[in-house]
Amino acid sequence: MEWQQIEYFIAVAKSQHMTNAAKQLSVTQPALSRSIATLEKEVGVELFERRGRNLALNRYGQLFLERAQNALTEIEKAKQEIANQINPWSGMLSLCFPHIVGAELFPTMLGAFRERYADIRFELNQCSNEELAVRIHNNDSDFGITTWESVNDAFHWQLIGKSELYLAVPLHHPWADKKSIRLEELGGQAYVGLKPSCALSYTVEALLAGAGVEPDTLYRADELDMVAGLVSAGFGVSLLPKTLGVRNYPMAWVHVNDPASELTVGVVWKKNRQLTPVGEVFLDFIRERYGAGAAE
């Protein structure tokens, strides 16, 4: 059943005349008659009765008309709601982000955006990194905030900020007083890592692999707070950014002698997807604020 058939049916039901309805719809009478006949065949019953030159709805037609008009009204409402949500100046954006990037860079970016576009609303979804990729791929979210290392070829990625990664160690650890350390020294060290659900895990794994280091990973946690708690309790060391919540744990922070030892956070969106007008506004803001180049 096609939507056009529904519109044709409603027009004929209101005019009660095939020729007049055809003129109103700017279609030929034979084409309109075929459309109504096809609709009746699909419904399984005739919807009109002939009364001279006029057509009158029978009881089945009356039933179908009521539902058809309700459906048309709901479709028009949905179209208006969609138009409101994609309006470039007052629409809605759906963003998703893993726990690791929700602390500092993300709120700062959103705050700057809202200062300029106060009427644009956000639907925010905190999720795992795997869920982020699925949401964007399925068009459930317009954009995501994650690390470059966790992005594959199906997405675009635009840098919005970097945070230095330090080696967090227990206060009683022999390295607690060190000013700096090389990644190579982590070989065989008791280490507290992150599960792949956390975006930072991809960054850390790439850093360690690049340095040819394989620490003795005793635990893997879902969130930074748990990692920081385990480190402060003496279970091992870990590469972490000095985010607000993590800094509150009693740990020592050792500078890492590697320029690549940093968390890179950016905006990710799906390739080959037409962005909504409000999505284009957001992306233009990101490129203006953080640079025009997007990683492919």
From TrEMBL:
UniProt source species: Cohnella hashimotonis
InterPro entries per UniProt: HTH-type_LysR_regulators, LysR_HTH_N, LysR_subst-bd, WH-like_DNA-bd_sf, WH_DNA-bd_sf
Domain HTH lysR-type: 1-58
Official protein name in the record: LysR family transcriptional regulator
Taxon lineage: Bacteria, Bacillati, Bacillota, Bacilli, Bacillales
Entry superkingdom: Bacteria
UniProt keyword terms in alphabetical order: DNA-binding, Transcription, Transcription regulation
Pfam families linked: HTH_1, LysR_substrate
Similarity field: Belongs to the LysR transcriptional regulatory family.
